[in-house]
Design brief:
By secondary structure, this protein is mostly helical. Helices cover 54% and strands 0% of the residues. Among the domains are: 114 residues, no CATH class; 163 residues, Up-down Bundle (Hydroxylamine Oxidoreductase, Chain A, domain 2), CATH 1.20.850. Helix 15 crosses helix 18 and helix 18 packs antiparallel against helix 19. It comes from Thermosulfurimonas marina.
Amino acid sequence: MKYARYVVLWLLFLGLGPFLTGKLWARPSKCEECHAKITPGIVKQFQRSKMYKTLTCASCHGKSHQSEADVDKAKLPTIETCKRCHAKQAKQYMSGKHFLGWVAMEAMPTIHMQPDPVTKGRKGCGGCHSLGATKEAKASKYYPRYAMDCQNCHTRHTFSVKEAREPEACMTCHMGFDHPQWEMWSTSKHGAAYQIDRLLGIPIEERRGPRCQTCHMPNGDHRVMTAWGFLGLRVPEDDQEWWQWRVSILKALHVLTPDGKFTDRINVVKAGKVARLTKEEWQAERQRMEKICHQCHNMNFVKEQLHQADMMLRAADQVMAEAIEIVADLARKGIIKHPDGNPYPDLLRFYDTPYEIEQKLYMMFMEYRMRAFQGAFHMNPDYSHWYGWAEMKKTLAEIKELAREMEERHAAK
């Protein structure tokens, strides 16, 4: 009788525990019984997911696959799969730039020159840019067998909201060469404050310093858009001096012809939402960001900081335009020859150019210019200056010296 009370409590726990904790200890499905032997990690992940209470494997993968003989019949989930339960989030996501990741990928004119692992194999650009299962994307012969979409942030098979709210969820794609937002944020005061508070065990809602999602996904909005866009360009530009530098950049992107007319590539810019094509569109995105910053800072401070970042981009564009015109002038003199006869290099060809001077120009645009203005907006002065602006100035000096040498060799022929 001494231990009777404990025995009763233990039996109650065994009988009612699953209901009290919200977990139903149901017999695993046939899918789980099989995959517990083949892919046990996936089964464990799914079983700890909140979705385990309401979904089965068939909810996302269908019922056609029943044995090892018909594995190819298992459906791979897409945005449409998630949309059945998460219509609001899917609609937001599909109206933003992440959903258009493949559009930007296929805009690269040398995509056909890339080895399959880079595109279909998702071991290069295709690893992140396989976002967005649009009809156009699926029709591409370079498109991978499956798109990531929701799974990129809510990774399989736990599909955790908590995971997607942490900045590390963004890290894999937003780091490195031309978009080191992770490095910029994590070493900024914003990032440092957030990470210190997390180490101290402070709840996510109370941590100082914004994370990626605070600014780019306010209130869980899956649209994810910014004022400048990836290319840091807007059309038109009221500042006429700045606009002239922008014209040089747009010509080097082959969005404008040498005589200043729009090419068909402007349609790709529109489709991928990689630039802002009206003042109203740009201003709407800027005002949205101002409101987010205003949650922690006074509006005068907010406007001044964003303005200084704009001016960093302006300064970078001046240096970029000067370098572009130096290289284009070499083509006008016949020192550099482009198959299409256009004196302006195509910066979207990236490293697929035989000229060292154009290699430097592409690095200047895709790496240093990006870091100069992105670092400014991510509140990381060291990144903006030493990894961006300083490298742009250094590369401009190298381009000038290379151009002089090329002209001398050409004249000596």
